[in-house]
Every structure is written in C-alpha cells, then in structure tokens.
Amino acid sequence: MTTVEPSAGLPDLPRLLLVEDDPDLAPLLLEVLSGDYRVSLAVDGHRGLHLGLTTPFEVMVIDRGLPGIEGVDLVGRFRRSGLRMPVLLLTARGTLADRIDGLDAGAEDYLVKPFEIDELLARLRALLRRHSDSAELLPIGSYRLSVATRTVTGGPEPVALSGREAALLELLARRPGKVWTRPELLASAFDAGDGAGTVDTYVYYLRRKLGRGVVRTVHGLGYQLGAV
Asked: CA geometry: angle at 120 spanning 119 and 121, to 5°?
C-alpha cells in the first residue's frame, strides 16, 4: 500500500482510495491524483477491502480486473457493509452488460480504458459535487457524524466507525431526546440474528472510540445520545 499525503501548508484534501494492479497505470494515476487528493493505493482486492473498511475515504477509483477480489465484487462488499462514498470503476470491458453489472453493484460511474486523465479528473470532481450536495452530517455534541462515510469529525482526528457502530450512533443521533430500550435498538440497528448482548457491546465500542459521554445510560430503561 502506498499513501501520498498533501504537502505541508496545503489545505486538507479529500481522501481517495485507488485500487489498481496495472504496474504502468497505477503509479501514473497515483502521481496525477495526488495533486488534488490524499491518495492511498492498493494493488489487489484484499488490500483494497481492508483499507476501505478501516479508513474513511471521500471517493474511490477501483479497477474491475483485480487479483484477489474482483472490482465489482469489491464495490458490492463496500455497499453491503454500509459504505456510501462515490465509486468510479475503471475497466477494459466496455460492453453494456459490463457497465450495468458495475452500476448495479453500487458504482456511480464507469470509465473504459484507455481514457484521458482530464476526463477522469472531471468525473471525480462531478462525483464529489453530487455527493457533497447529498451528504448528511448529524450533530453529536461537538462532534459530527457523516452518514455517508461513517466518519465522526470534530475531535483531533477523524474517527472511522464500523457499519454497526455507525448504525447505532446514527439511530441515537436522529432522535437525541429519546431513551431507547435494548430491544428497540437491537431491532432497529442490528441484524435479526444478533443476540441480546450486541447492543451493550457496540455501546462499549462507541465509548472506547469517542469517549464515555457519547452514549448515556438511563438506568432501568436503556440508552440515549449523550453530550460530548
């Protein structure tokens, strides 16, 4: 994995995950994109999946023909895990069926190789504009939860949440005055097969990442959003 960070003194740039295994194209894209983004490069699907699930990104560029996990499958896994950032698929396949497969998996755009770098940059700008227009930030005390990227900002560093952590925090944040019982939280934020202790486990995880005050215990009743 290679990461290119912005130079000192530059404004904070959007984070971009590039998953591309072509030994000629990958370094070229890394160099070009690093002028406008903080780019993390993965050269196979497994590494791309790990980075995408553990690091908050504003946008992703994913090659379709990847070793390990194929690009369309990778996009599908991100969507099933709750990640909503825009994804642009790169591919050598230009048939209508291939484009439909990529879009159905959750990609917002599709670019067929070979392509012009200026077109790639323009499409990424358009994706980010559309995404920012629909992005939702939920207040959590002095913090903000990005529903799209599952990232909490407002502290010293952005905090990336897992899908279940984000689902629980989003539910609490949408009705900050409500006291939720454990069965209500279990039914609304988790899967049907999860056990009764799941809620307490994920409250613990949120407190460990964001501080004990992020979720308030109402003894004998349940939980509600705290003030942090």
From this structure: 90
Whether residue 69 has pLDDT greater than 90: yes
**Do residues 169 and 140 lie in contact, with contact meaning Cβ atoms separated by under 8 Å?**
yes
Q: Is 41 helix (H, G, I), strand (E, B) or coil?
A: strand
Position 134 confidence tier, pLDDT thresholds 50, 70, 90: low
d(CA 117, CA 200): 48
Place of tokens 């004998």: 220
Dig out the tokens for 129 from the structure: 């504009």
User: Which pTM was predicted?
Assistant: 0.61
Distances (CA, A) of 6 to 2, 62, 102, 113: 13, 21, 31, 28
Average pLDDT in the 199-203 region?
A: 94
pLDDT at 20: 96
Distance (Å, whole) CA 168 – CA 164: 6
The type of residue at 123 is R
Residue 225 confidence (pLDDT) above 60:
yes
Task: Read off φ and ψ for residue 145, nearest 5 degrees.
Answer: -100, 120
Across 168-178, average pLDDT: 89
Q: Which residues contact 191 (CB under 8 A, 6 or more apart)?
A: none
Convert 168-204 to b/e letters by CB count within 10 Å (16 or more is b): bbbbbbeeeeeebebeebbeebbeeeeeeebbeebbe
